[in-house]
Amino acid sequence: MTAENTQDDKLPIKMLNDRILVQLEGADAERKSSGGILIPATAEVGKRLTWAVVVALGPNVRSMELNDRVLFNPEDRYEVEVGGTAYIILRERDIHAVAAKRLDDSHTGLYL
User: Fold this and answer.
1) CA 67/CA 56 separation, integer angstroms
2) pLDDT digits (tens, 9 = 90+) for 61-70
3) In the chain, fewer beta carbons within 10 Å around the N or the C end?
């Protein structure tokens, strides 16, 4: 690896348009029930939405901010690895819900 390649690995990344970069909370491969039972990734679950944390936003994203928790369908995603960390790229329209403390006194958050 040359010095040029090392610099290329550390280039800043800017999300474009309505794209959102999120990181899954906890292990994607396993879940725990409310009773504390570990559910392996191989267990079949119907359509189940997933929570993630927003780590970067494109300039046209209007409904969320950095560090918000978002709910999305894990089947509608693009995965990318940056610096050894796995992230998911979504469009704003693919987000089903946003959870953040700043939303306590706001409107319903409906987006059309």
Assistant:
1) 9
2) 998 999 999 9
3) C
